[in-house]
What does this fold into?
Amino acid sequence: MRIGELEQRLLARFPRESAESWDKVGLSVGRPADEVTGVLVALDVSASALEQARARGANVLLTHHPLAIDPPATLTPEARDSSLAGACAYRAAALGVSVISLHTNLDRSIEARLCLGGLLGLEPASSLERPDDPGALGLGLLADLPDGLALEELAGRAAAAFGTEPRIWGEAGSAVRRVAVLGGSLGSFGTTAVCAGADVVIAGEAGYHTCQDVRTRGTSLILLGHDRSEEPFCGVLERACVDAGVDEAMISRAALGRAWWTCNGKERP
It folds into this structure.
């Protein structure tokens, strides 16, 4: 299979048209005509992931987050001389590793919705973005808990499922019956969650004033960390590669490190 063919099969599953207009999905570095020798799946394009791909004989790095949203002004071997994106683009080309990314087009998929819901033991009723159309593509998810759950218990479930120490806004014993979930940054979807009647929204990250606003309007927040909230999508990418026709033996996942740590945490980079 050629790299361009793999890209097209992945985009058939996660259409480019469903990505945000500002997003950069698909092939960003590489030669479409080259034969695929192996695929390494990672959350981010990084120097470490590129080196791991090269070491494993993979000439495709498949990521969730794109190489860059805005094209780097310069390409140099070291990030300090240009930018992380510029250095990674330089290294990918130098190593002969093509980069394919599926970002907000994957975020909007039903597969992503089921992935996040499954980890939390939730049955998604719809996306968060389009709550009135359960079958439609859309960001995040909404789910109801008929028997309710204490916020503290749900936070513990999220911490175990995503392997993180979440930051929680809300009363520990407050009852949760409707849950909104969004991987990555919450942004304006905090308001969406409030308007959808969510008792809590689980997301990767949110700005301080966004949290204040959402909490004041009666919705609690559980913040997992941007990376931890979306690392499970690597499993979605692996399955998509297999279904696209790549031999499972040729697919591997990058070692998932941690770029940040907390004082109370046991895990440090």
Remarks:
- DSSP finds ten helices and ten strands in the chain.
